[in-house]
Design goal:
The protein is of the alpha/beta class. 40% of the residues lie in helices and 16% in strands. β3 (81-84), α6 and β4 (108-110) form a beta-alpha-beta unit. α1 (7-19) runs parallel beside α12 (215-230) and α5 runs antiparallel to α15 (294-301). It is globular, with a radius of gyration of 21 Å.
């Protein structure tokens, strides 16, 4: 708790959570929330109050499937310049990662934004560039704004974007974990607002709180969930009101609606989840990697690529297993030699647990 700006306030909130008498399982869907929980020891403190926090599919890199990674590797091996965020480059595909492809001579470049990738394409018009679009509603608007800013002809986007709310419906319907409440991600909610989560409360009677990322934010959101349970309510409340507006970000939502369309997509650890993928709309198909290189990529779409033997990333993303329960965790699977994506991404539960010493 050394990082708390107000340790007395944190203790008071923890005491109120304990005094509520509520014993419950809550789930968050945000890698940054997981980092805050584990780094500050909140997960252990909350368990002493009767609250257990599960991590859900809140890591964009982690839910990206091996087939999508194989698409990028195929393009890289075929001479196309692949641009990608850094925490994606070492995620294993069927047998290799993009880092291996780069080591084999492919032109794979780490970028900090899609605009960096577009600038590279403009500066080198003799080469074909692809940007691998990863992320939930937080990063998707950048892809949309890039499409609206007249990208060069030699630039395309492999959209691996996904949306959160309907994935939560699938998670609840699977029935593997009994959830008493959901902690919704602040960054995603800053884009989409409050309304897209409402169905989870009205249809499934699940209390929800949109939370920020400071330790006190998370503690307050958990306190708010316990109060909903005590009072027999199931609503969407907004703890992160200093950033998240009820309507979200209308300009970002409009940009996404102009450039992207919902599609059915598989998530790592899940079956195909209807309407949770975002593909580039026909109006911008000249910059859709899957349309531009369809002949090259089509064979990959029907491939059934199994998860690495022993890897439990899927179970961890569904909240039914902790990283330390995976037989590979801290042994065959470490940050320097990751077997699955949960040990690669800084938002991955395994990487977070390993970083902060939960290795037993």
């Amino acid at each position: 708790m050394a990082d708390f700006q107000n340790r007395d306030m944190a203790k008071k909130v923890l005491d109120k959570i304990k005094d509520s008498g509520v014993e419950a399982k809550f789930m968050h869907v945000c890698g940054t929330h997981q980092d805050t929980l584990v780094r500050n020891g909140l997960d252990a403190m909350l368990e002493e109050t009767g609250i257990r926090i599960l991590q859900g599919p809140g890591c964009p890199v982690c839910v990206t499937t091996p087939n999508e990674i194989e698409e990028a590797i195929k393009l890289a091996d075929s001479g196309i310049v692949v641009t990608v965020f850094g925490d994606m480059i070492t995620v294993p595909g069927a047998k290799r990662s993009l880092a291996h492809a780069k080591g084999d001579g492919a032109d794979v470049r780490i970028v900090y934004s899609i605009m960096d990738a577009m600038k590279m394409a403009k500066d080198q018009p003799e080469k074909d560039f692809m940007f691998m679009g990863i992320g939930f509603e937080t990063t998707t608007p950048a892809t949309s704004f890039a499409l609206l800013s007249q990208p060069p002809e030699n630039f395309s986007i492999l959209s691996c974007h996904r949306t959160v709310p309907k994935a939560l419906r699938a998670l609840v319907n699977m029935g593997e974990v009994k959830l008493h409440g959901l902690i919704e991600p602040g960054h995603v909610s800053a884009i989409i607002g409050e309304e897209p989560y409402q169905f989870l409360s009205t249809e499934y009677n699940i209390p929800q709180v949109i939370a920020g990322f400071e330790p006190l934010d998370l503690l307050m959101s958990i306190y708010m969930l316990t109060q909903q349970i005590k009072e027999g309510r199931a609503e969407v409340e907004n703890e992160y009101f200093r950033v998240v507006k009820p309507e979200g970000n209308p300009k970002a939502i409009e940009a996404m609606s102009k450039t992207l369309v919902e599609c059915d997509v598989k998530w790592r650890g899940f079956p195909v989840i209807p309407e949770t993928g975002l593909e580039i709309s026909n109006k911008f198909e000249a910059h859709n990697t899957r349309k531009k290189y369809e002949d090259l990529l089509a064979p990959i779409w029907d491939m059934e690529i199994k998860e690495p033997a022993g890897c439990k990333c899927g179970e961890i993303l569904r909240g039914i297993m902790e990283p330390q329960d995976c037989p590979l965790f801290g042994k065959a699977c470490k940050p320097g030699n990751p077997v699955g994506p949960c040990m690669v991404s800084f938002e991955g539960g395994c990487a977070i647990a390993y970083k902060y010493g939960k290795r037993q």
